[in-house]
Amino acid sequence: MPEAVTATPRGLDHLVIGVHDLDAAGALYERLGFRVGARNRHPWGTENRIVQFPGSFLELISVGDVGAIEEPRPGRFSFGAFVRDALARGEGMSMLVLESLDAKADNRAFAAAGIGAYEPFSFERWAKRPSGEEVRVAFSLAFADDPEAPECGFFVCEQHEPQNFWNPEFQRHDNGVTALSAAI
Q1: What SS3 state is found at 149?
Q2: What CA–CA distance (Å, rounded) separates 53 from 35?
Q3: Three-class SS of residue 9?
Q4: Residue 93: exposed, middle, or buried by beta-carbon count in 10 A (0-12, 13-18, 19+)?
């Protein structure tokens, strides 16, 4: 039995919310008074729009290109396949994401604890500031799983360019919401 991982308090990074129609979901959140970001495309077949708060966000996600989705295989988590399969069961929260300062170290800790045997996953893309300026955002993810809860997705997210991702302009919502404080 592996030695238990020392619990380190982590902040809530974001919640992944699967939706069938990304435009309709974005419009709904806008009617609810949230500022919803532009559509982003991922090379693994998903597309998202985010609702940002200081230090955390909601990720509205959908499958955009089913042909780009890789099937999962031993040691390789398929984000696109997880989203596709979660949406086949229905819309709603499908992944809980916590903050990471070192996704590679978290990955090793997850493996040692027997809750993750996946390769670390890193990616980057270009994002636009409200001014229209394009900036690089980059992330490393480490995935954990629980065989007793295969329909629940858990991972940590290390931000490599946080100064480019977090933007106070995107965190002002007409409905007055200022934070994402918990997930229940």
Answers
A1: coil
A2: 10
A3: coil
A4: middle
